[in-house]
Amino acid sequence: MPKSKASKEPKMPKAQNSLKTIGRIIRYLGRYKWMIAVVLVLVMIGEAAGVVNVYLLKPLINDCIVPLIGKENLTAADFAPLGRMTLILIGIYLAGTLATLIYGQMMVKISNGVLNTIRRDLFNSVQDLPVQYFDQRTHGEIMSRFTSDVDTFRDAIVSGITQIVSCTVAVVGMFVMMLILSPLLTLLIVGMLAVMLLILQKIGGKAARYFQKQQAAVGKVNGYIEEMIEGQKVVKVFNHESVVQDEFAALNQDLRDASASANTFASVMMPIMGNLSYVNYALTAVCGSVMVITGSMDLGTIISFLQYTRSFSQPITRISQLFNAFFAALAGAERIFEVIDSKPEEDNGYVELVNVEYAPDGNPVESGKRTGQWAWKHPHHDGTTTYASMNGAVDFENVTFSYDGKKTVLEDVSLYAKPGQKIALVGSTGAGKTTITNLINRFYELQSGKIRYDGINIEKIKKGDLRSALSMVLQDTHLFTGTVRENIRYGRLDATDEEVVAAARLANADSFIRHLPHGYDTMLTADGSNLSQGQRQLLAIARAAVADPPVLILDEATSSIDTRTEALIEKGMDQLMHGRTVFVIAHRLSTVHNADAIMVLENGQIIERGNHDELVAQKGRYYQLYTGQFELS
Length: 633
Hints:
By secondary structure, this protein is α/β, with parallel strands linked by helices. It folds into three domains: 17-340, ABC transporter type 1, transmembrane domain (ABC transporter transmembrane region fold, Up-down Bundle); 352-389, no CATH class; 394-627, 3-Layer(aba) Sandwich (Rossmann fold). Helices cover 60% and strands 13% of the residues. The protein is built from 20 helices and 16 strands. The protein has helices spanning 2-7, 18-29, 33-55, 57-65, 76-128, 131-135, 139-181, 183-230, 232-237, 241-293, 299-340, 433-440, 463-468, 484-489, 497-506, 510-514, 533-547, 563-577, 612-618, 621-627, and strands at residues 352-358, 364-366, 374-379, 385-389, 394-402, 408-417, 422-427, 448-453, 456-457, 470-473, 482-483, 523-524, 551-555, 581-585, 597-602, 605-610. The chain has a six-stranded mixed beta sheet, with helices on both faces. β3 (374-379) and β4 (385-389) form a beta hairpin. The chain is elongated, with a radius of gyration of 36 Å.
């Protein structure tokens, strides 16, 4: 049921160290330090223009306007100082506006560059994660890191950073000017500022916690949506629309509650700060008026100071508005960094797969070009390096394995496959057949025992090189958005067009491909939904064929192909398997009767082994399966 999968999702960690996250964001920004330095200078110019212009109101009023009050017979010369001061104010405002325009454009470039780097780091980290990481999380929950988390992070960078810097510059500049104008009234402002900051700290702390919950809830909702869209046919087949709707409603309600709480605390800050600023303005106006009346302050000073008082609260109000985006971005950044910092798939291998040519004495010699002949390059502790031809021999020795460390899936399994042998694995669902093929690829690590490839412990082989020496055709075929040719070439990216066509012919896919609207250049979308299941499986077989590895793993490779199609491709499959070591997992025993060895598994153990005739003669479990007395489940 969908609900059970959702319950397996790991619990999102709460914010542990916000300062560490902020420091990490700053390191990303540090790659643009010179541009940021210019931005900071421009921000200072832009905000300084506003601060200076407010201060100039004092001489404008005291020196240019007050002397004109009550004066008779005014001439143009009397208004000249006022005109000059007005032009100075206009010039300063224009300089500030130009600086703001330039640094705004630069911040767009910086933010897009940072997001580009973060997306790349995130995507690269996902590629390096072990398969087990994806077993424990839904695809949609991981996708939410690239979508909602990155989006909230982007909004904060584009609008938040420059506003925080500009607000800081404005507050410092205005504070200094207010001290110059009136230290006494400035003390009143500082007292009100302390009250504002205390309220900001209390409300902001609660908002941060709820924004973390909101981002986690977004991930769960996205994961559920992705899963249900992918399984829409299954939902409809079993008439579970109402069940799915109820489960989504519950997840959506959790998101609503978390979002409501987060935005309630975030949005309440703006009106609180705004009203406190009005109170502050009123108190300053009253106190300033008294000082003007008593003669301890002139008119120009109180007007400039009141303007600073009104402007001084605006940056604080703007910062309170930014908390919404800031806390959401911080929560999103923590979730992004959680993936980036997840432990990558370990690879301590040092044996490499290299192209070789054979010398007259029969010894392999490493070649810098593709030769079609391969060998294992094995460096030793004594400084020597040996080369062993890649033949495709696979050997399991007393292998025990568990996915979760609790339930044993394979127990003391030993088997071998000589080069060119076809090994069939049969048994009930959950017996451990697919696990064996996953372990050959080192998708998971063993608890005990050894697996050797050409006599080399696979733990010594670099994982990329090991997987290059294998090819798999899975029961669940995945095709990428692209042409048919590109999907086949995915098995080996340097394959020529001729090799792609040859691989398709080998898999008996060439005929149906040529009947497609654009042949090999036909575009496939939505995982190849414009093809039948059998055709998709044929393309997967062709993809494995073009890779041309010595070891081939067929995990129910023909399960989606009807009997008639299976008969048509049987010859092609035989050609594909010729000369290769092949592991075949199949429920149709007719497809494995010609295997060199058949392993019958039950409960993670090999209970029977031998060829078809030997196992039939034993009249054991395989005989029961073959004669229909016992069915695979």
